[in-house]
Amino acid sequence: MLKKINGIEIAGISCCVPGNRVFNKDIKSHKNVSRVIKAIGIETRPIADSKTCTSDLVLKSANYIINKLNWKKKDIDILVFVSQTPDYLTPATSGILQEKLKLKKSTLVFDINLGCSGYTHGLIAISSLMKSLNLKKGLLTVGDVTSKLVNEKDNVSNLLFGDAGSTTAIVNSKINSKTIFCNYFSDGAGFEDIIVSSHSLSGRKKLTKKELINKKDDKNNFRSQINISLNGPNIFNFAINNIPPLLKKITKKIANIKYCFLHQANKMIQDSIEEQLNNKNIMFPTSLKKYGNTSSATIPITICHNYFHKKLIGYSLLCGFGVGLSISTVVVNLEKTKIFKIIKI
Amino acid sequence: MKKKYNQILKNLEIIFEKKIKPTDKTDKLENFDSIIILQIMNLAKTSYKKNIDGLRISKCKTISEIIDIIS
User: Fold this and answer.
1) pLDDT, tens digit, for every residue of A290-344?
2) What's the whole-model pTM score?
3) For chain A, which domains are there?
4) CA–CA gap between residue A226 and residue A83 (Å, rounded)
């Protein structure tokens, strides 16, 4: 069940968020907003302005970590960009980042279309490639501006999403004991549970004027086909039924797991997983209150928010889950990882 | 059985943040929304080891029907 990738070291993690913030108590469309805030655990969220794209947030975090780690750009052999809100449908945003970061042209760059499980899926993908192609240094960039997909009259999702970008610096280490353990799970039957139905002329639902019209659902939420649509109960069921047994198995197999960094979907899911795992030796750090659900960036945001300039001890269990539907977990030792303060754009 | 029924009713009172009766109609409860449904699903899973579909809860017309599903 658990796969091993030997000789991979995470050198550093940086994050960038928009300076602009929205406070959920100011959202007037909910009848009892304080009850909802208490349940989802999100008080305020960083929100990108109309000109800021995912690549802007990621670029700033990437430049920051390259400088802080004193990395030479010529040593970077691979850049992977994970997002469900890329700058363009085509070309891939990773190429734009390669040019803006002035990385060499022989750098392997590509995008992965994933959301909430994107960070852990991305770690698995980049680590595997670095080992198999013998690449020295790599950047895993993840981020999303999901707030741009939300209809402000959709009470299912209008208090949830924040925007953020992150860069993780990865080194192909000669020390084989630097091992990451990984696990992955997909259930495409739930593809409609988190969906943006129409996005272009090439998709299954071709983008026409009709797709732009807001429609009311049976709970009085409004959204069009270009807005994100969430099936809350199905996502909740998927998370609380699949993740706790998986994490129980992993924590039985690997000793010395001290932290569990869960994707920050909402407080109810976080609490339910923590309660079912019922392991007092493991901490469950959170960043929901101040950052909300930043999609693929929630795991690095939670690490940086809670542990910048601090040392993590033992193993950290990272667990991303959501769109797809999908789950992936990575167990990694972050004791020597440099964790930087979250910067703003 | 009665003890379990009453315990679930108490749990639901915490979720609804008010005193409720089994005969109360869900459409008269102001806050019977998606958040409450998720909280009930979580209660069923964590305290009573039951996987309940959110749609099933949303179709319950009375508190008593919700209790029956959980128990």
Assistant:
1) 999 999 999 999 999 999 988 899 999 999 999 999 999 999 999 999 999 999 9
2) 0.91
3) 1-345 (3.40.47.10)
4) 17
- Rounded CA gap, A7 and A283, in Å? 26
Measured between CA atoms, the residue of chain B closest to residue A37 is: B35
End-to-end CA distance of chain A: 40
Please state whether the peptide bond connecting residue A123 to the residue before it is cis, i.e. omega within 30 degrees of 0: no
Query: Looking at beta carbons, which residues of chain A come within 8 Å of B42?
Result: 236, 240, 268, 271-272
The tens digit of pLDDT for each residue in B5-62 reads 889 999 999 998 889 889 988 888 877 888 889 899 999 988 998 888 888 898 899 9
Residue A229, beta-bridge partner list: A195
Chain B residues lying within 8 Å of A36, measured CB to CB: 35
What are the backbone dihedrals phi and psi of residue A180, each rounded to the nearest 5 degrees, phi first?
-110, 145
Q: CB B53 to CB A237 under 8 A?
A: yes
| Rounded Cα gap, residues A156 and A27, in angstroms | 13
A 10 A CB-CB count for A345 gives 19
Question: A302: closest CA among A52, A120, A56?
Answer: A120
Q: Give the closest-approach CA distance of B54 to chain A in angstroms.
A: 5
DSSP H/E element including A309: none
C-beta separation of A113 from A133 below 8 A: no
| C-alpha separations of A19 from A55, A218, A288, A328, A342 in Å | 16, 36, 17, 30, 11
Q: Of A40, A156, A233, which is closest to B41 when you measure between CB atoms?
A: A233
And the tokens for A140? 């895993």
pLDDT for residue A77 = 98
- Which chain B residues contact residue A241 at CB under 8 A? 45, 51
Q: Tokens 């794209």 sit at which residue?
A: A53
A174/A33 Cα distance (integer angstroms): 53
Chain centre distance of CA B4 = 13
**DSSP reduced 3-state for B45:** helix
Residue in the block written with tokens 């009892």: A32
**In chain B, which residues touch A (CB < 8 A)?**
17, 30-31, 33-35, 37-39, 41-42, 45-46, 51, 53-55, 57-58
ipTM of the complex: 0.78
Task: Indicate the fold that domain B2-70 takes in CATH.
Answer: 1.10.1200
As a whole number of angstroms, the distance between CA A95 and CA A81 comes to: 9
